[in-house]
Amino acid sequence: MGQSEEEIARRLAALRTEHRDLDDSITALLLSGHVDQLQLARLKRRKLRLKDEIALLEDQLIPDIIA
Predict the structure, then answer these.
(1) How many CB atoms lie within 10 A of CB 25?
(2) Name one Pfam family in it (predicted).
């Protein structure tokens, strides 16, 4: 793990913002009435990749608790 907690937190904030923006873009595309299925699929794939990356970074910040 070569990144500090502060760097990870900054990256997480940026990814979460991008994830929300993609969600807004997907919603706007669906509401427009003219849905480009290819564009919609690309946006959804990108959103899923961001979600996975966010989860990985969150795991780095949250220590494992041994019960």
Answers:
(1) 15
(2) DUF465
Determine, yes or no, domain membership for 65.
no
Question: What values do phi and psi take at 11, rounded to 5?
Answer: -65, -40
Is residue 63 situated within a structural domain?
A: no
- Secondary-structure percent of the chain, ordered helix, strand, coil, rounded to 5: 80, 0, 20
Kindly state the helix (H) or strand (E) to which residue 8 belongs, with its residue range.
helix 5-31
The predicted model scores a pTM of: 0.82
Domain region containing 47? 5-58
Taking only the tens of pLDDT, the chain with its 67 residues reads 468 899 999 999 999 999 999 999 999 999 998 889 999 999 999 999 999 999 999 998 887 676 5
Q: What total number of domains does the chain contain?
A: 1
Q: Tokens 């946006």 correspond to what residue?
A: 43
